[in-house]
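Hi D.,

Good news: the full-assembly prediction came through. Inputs first.
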Amino acid sequence: MDDVVTTFINAQGVTEATSAFLARSKAHFIANEWHPSGESMAVLEPSTGGLLAEVPCGDTATVNLAVAAANTAFKSGEWSQWTPVQRERVLMRLADLIEENLQTLAEIESLDAGKAIAGCKEVDIGGSIDVLRYMAGWATKIDGATRSVSVPGEHFAYTLKEPVGVVGAIVPWNWPFNMAIWKLAAPLAVGCSIVLKPAQLTPLSMLYFAELCLEAGLPPGAFNVVLGRGSVVGEALVNHPDINKVSFTGSTPVGIGVGQAAIANLNPVTLELGGKSPMVVFADADIQRVVDATQQSVFFNTGQVCSAGSRIYVQRDIYEQTVAAIAERAASMVVGHVLDEATEMGPAISAGQKASVLEYIAIGKSEGARVVCGGEDPGGEGYFVQPTLLADCHNQMRVVQEEIFGPVLVAIPFDTEEEAIALANDNIYGLAASVFTQDVSRAHRLVRQLEAGTVWVNTHDMIDANTPFGGVKQSGFGKDLGPEQLDHYLKTKSVWMAL
Ligand code: NAP
Ligand code: MG
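Then the structure:
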């Protein structure tokens, strides 16, 4: 193992802190202690397919231990009963520590998840710092309300907002650090404790984060990480009788099962699931903006973006011109070494994901799509795929209806506004959508008629800690981010006093 890490680091040229972290032995993080129990699981580097680290694989007993630690912390009042300003201070300190160690965290995340480092620093790690600070600020602003009541006699009635308790959180591999911070910042701010399961493909950044939690002074049991497989650790967590809330981000089929498990225990559940988000481009649109938007959505993070604008509907007058402009930019993308600051796109997460993307491209071709750029297997080591544009598609094609989760954009022409709305809404998902037009009235009409949790106008995939994010239809329910997220981690207690 030592040999592997050394060779690897020499080849990659990471900072000393990163190489030291990779060389340390890995363990579950429970009650502020490291638990190395369980068989060993290989963590691969998507850029090479080589071994990056080994981590233990948890089981039901590991989950039981972590849930017990979270419960003890919650019930003892360690963290849950700290004053709001005490919780805020620790979370702010944690955000500072992430910022101080941004380069290290970005290197770990880039190597583990195959992310181009420049985007990883800005979006994955930088965006997470913003979310943590934003939610830390809410710790001191959780209020109930006094209510005027009309029953006979004199009464004083008010509501109390209390933390729900122990949260079981499960996150996917496409934004391992960022999605985890989205899941943990709000509940920690309001006083909940958490057991988090990272995706087995990308466990490393949460382990580094756990080290920072120790340094920041988070008390034992407030935050716990159990590593392992979804079918074992994930199942045990969401079915555990001693958790009080389930928060899941991942695919729709797994999310449905997770939702059923939560309801079986009558636990509230947040489900952030898949998407196939449409971009609707009218003839009066600024084509450069459209091209830029495709860069920040469907070609960013190798297209492994839940809200990626992965179907583009373009009004016929500018269809060919828009397709050509997107293809020109996509074909010029710098695809390569994830630690190179100039790289715009890294590999897919795994051999399986690469095979799935190539399979979808083959399906698209057989369904009659025209390959305008990409579409080939670039070969070589690692799981690289090409930015790909499939034109002349229609809504009956699988590549238009199904989530590919790769850098594959499908283009479809349309003639009228009514037709565009119908085509955009003709999908099981409803995570996000965007519309490109200079016509303000049309933009407002589309905003209202598109079935999506977020609608962007003349941009795509803008995210901020203060705006709620989450889908409708098969993209799930509940919101992450914004003040809206806090309510998912709070119980409202009504209090009556006869005066
Ligand atoms: P996934 O297969 O559903 O896995 C997501 C997480 O669930 C992983 O940690 C996985 O663990 C775990 N899991 C698997 N089976 C489980 C089970 N039976 N019980 C409990 N947990 C289980 O999704 P993915 O392929 O990793 O991620 C891609 C999907 O996530 C896409 O559909 C994407 O759109 C969606 N996503 C949505 C959002 C959003 O905000 N809406 C954001 C990002 C991603 P293991 O992988 O370790 O087995
Ligand atoms: Mg990995």
